[in-house]
Amino acid sequence: MKYDLIVIGSGPGGYISAIRASQLGLKAAIIEKYSTLGGTCLNVGCIPSKALLDSSHHYHDAVHNFKEHGILVDSPKIDFSQMIDRKAKVVEQTTGGIKFLMEKNKIDVFEGLGSFVDATHVKVAKNDGTEEVIEGTNIIIATGSKPASLPFINIDKERIITSTEALKLKEIPKHLIVIGGGVIGLELGSVYSRLGSEVSVVEYMDKIVPGMDADISKELQKVLKKQGIKFYTSHGVSAVENKGKEVTIKATNKKGEEVIFAGDYCLVSVGRKPYTEGLGLENVGIKVNEKGQIEINEHLQTNIPNIYAIGDVVKGAMLAHKAEEEGVVAAEIIAGQKPHIDYNLIPGIVYTWPEVAAVGKTEQELKETGVDYKSGKFLMRALGRSRASTDIDGFVKVLADKNTDEVLGVHIVGARAADLIMEMAVAMEYRASAEDIARICHGHPTYSEAIKEAAKAAWDGKPLNA
Q1: Which of 45, 73, 120, 318 would bridge with 312, disulfide CB 3.0–4.6 Å?
Q2: What is the mean pLDDT of residues 155-172?
Q3: Looking at residue 49, what is its pLDDT?
């Protein structure tokens, strides 16, 4: 069987690239080793975690915030199995939607492990033990990533777990110890903190979400600490041991002292690593770097011109929307078009509450590169909309070029930050100035007014409502 394009992996990057290729008239096939489509994001990542975040948020509101709104209810109880079942149904509906899209776009789906025979042939080792070889003029590798660990940690998937197991626990932990203060650890830590778990976050760096703007990190830690999560930054973990119904973690703090943590579950959340096992990259000589990432050029091509790679398996942020954009770009390049992608304008989001979102440069990056900039900040508590909803934590921070006023970076902690950030991503795509944003009429009362005010603060230093 011969195709214009074979895609290995059906995550957001993979299935989107296959759809775009089909839309452009290419005959496409997709290979997925699991029985459901959608990859990590839809099955054990973005979608199920957001389902649990939303469920736990409703419960937390009922316990802590309803009374203030004049809503009196008997003490809410958690049906945790129903919560997990709802999450599973959301996943099932979403992955089923991908299957429908494959049929709609006439994309052939092969279930099994795909591996290279040569530069144009891929073997599909099916789960029933049979094999099939298909031919593709072009091939996209979109096999994603899997949870990373530390060499001395034995992830038993019972007490010492990854994000995959954290999404399908049979009980709410009494004390969840999270190793790693990044996005995944904070989101899942938030889920169980809201449901009543004691949550301790142990982070090697001196701040949480270390890749984000320092002001964001500081504000988010303050807010989550107020919600009950405990943080132990500058702690290097040296040992993790399952003792039956208890897990102990040894760490060294910045003073060189040994600290021991004990809980009933330990979530190892120290990042993710590219997944290329079983692909047979050596059969075609595809190059990978020291991090295990497949090397690509600006056209997303590997060193074998007809083979492309996208998403978590290559350099850059491990984000579903980044993979999707690369999937579209790769398909369009294969179809003879000339698309582009601006990696500086891919937003980063943390779905805690309040949410965190950022696009463009951090203040630290601007300082390091010697860019002359100005900064404007506006607190969410100054908004009428925030006071009305009682979501008063956080701020919007706008960074602009001191000479041209062009917006260089935007950083938000606040209600609906994940949606708000897209206004600024669009504005920055068109190289808007802080004054441009400040002069656009924003609806009142809305959370987006904080963006207008922060932009004005960056432009002339004079926000109107602060």
Answers
A1: 318
A2: 98
A3: 98
**Residue 418: closest CA among 343, 359, 345:** 359
Region of 248 on the Ramachandran plot (φ > 0 left; ψ -120 to 50 alpha; else beta): beta
List strands edge to edge, sheet with 247-252.
236-242, 247-252, 258-263
User: Which domains are present in the chain?
Assistant: 2-147+273-341 (3.50.50.60), 160-270 (3.50.50.60), 345-460 (3.30.390.30)
**Closest C-alpha to 241, from 324, 172, 154, 354:** 154
Query: Angle CA(182)–CA(199)–CA(419) in degrees, nearest 5?
Result: 45
- 382 confidence band (pLDDT: 50, 70, 90): very high
Residue 127 has pLDDT above 90, yes or no: no
Q: In the annotation, is 444 catalytic?
A: yes
Classify burial at 137, counting beta carbons within 10 Å of its beta carbon; exposed 0-12, middle 13-18, buried 19 or more. middle
Q: Are 376 and 457 in contact (CB under 8 A)?
A: yes
Nearest to 275 by CA among 8, 7, 5: 8
pLDDT of residue 117: 98
Q: What is the pTM of this model?
A: 0.97
Buried b (16+ CB within 10 A) or exposed e, 275-297: bbeebbbeebebebeeeebbebe
What average pLDDT does the segment 448-454 reach? 98
β-strand partners of 32: 111
Q: Which of 58, 64, 299, 444 is catalytic?
A: 444
H or E element: which one contains 365?
helix 363-368
